[in-house]
Write a structure and sequence with these properties.
Length: 122
């Protein structure tokens, strides 16, 4: 017969919390932000007009890939892609002009330019 801890008189308390005073805090790296941001996160891929592209492919599949039956879908896809490229071009122009508007999505160059005005004290 297997005896449980409650029968033997032990109370199952689980793991007791660790004493905070027994483990002192060790600062490995300085607890402050750097004065610049790396550009690694900005290299994401932009997906444009996914809905229009799927509608176009569905139309082409239904019509055995004859393009003349899907003129409406093709023009919608081209319009969407042109709008995407225009907005991307305008965003690039504002970045090249150096316009920094806080509160919007900024790329790493704009963030670095903004953060130069508020450096961390050493």
């Amino acid at each position: 017969m297997r005896l449980s801890p409650t029968v033997l008189g032990f109370q199952n308390k689980g793991r007791t919390p660790q004493n905070e005073k027994a483990v002192p805090f060790q600062e490995i790296l300085p607890l402050r932000l750097k004065n610049r941001v790396s550009g690694k996160a900005d290299s994401g891929s932009d997906v444009a007009c996914l809905q229009e592209m799927s509608v176009l492919f569905a139309c082409l599949k239904d019509n055995e890939f004859v393009e003349q039956y899907c003129n409406k879908e093709i023009t919608q896809f081209k319009r969407c892609y042109k709008y995407f490229m225009d907005s991307k071009f305008q965003a690039k122009q504002t970045v090249n002009q150096g316009i920094v508007t806080p509160g919007k999505d900024l790329n790493y160059r704009q963030l670095n330019k903004y953060m130069r005005g508020f450096p961390n004290p050493k």
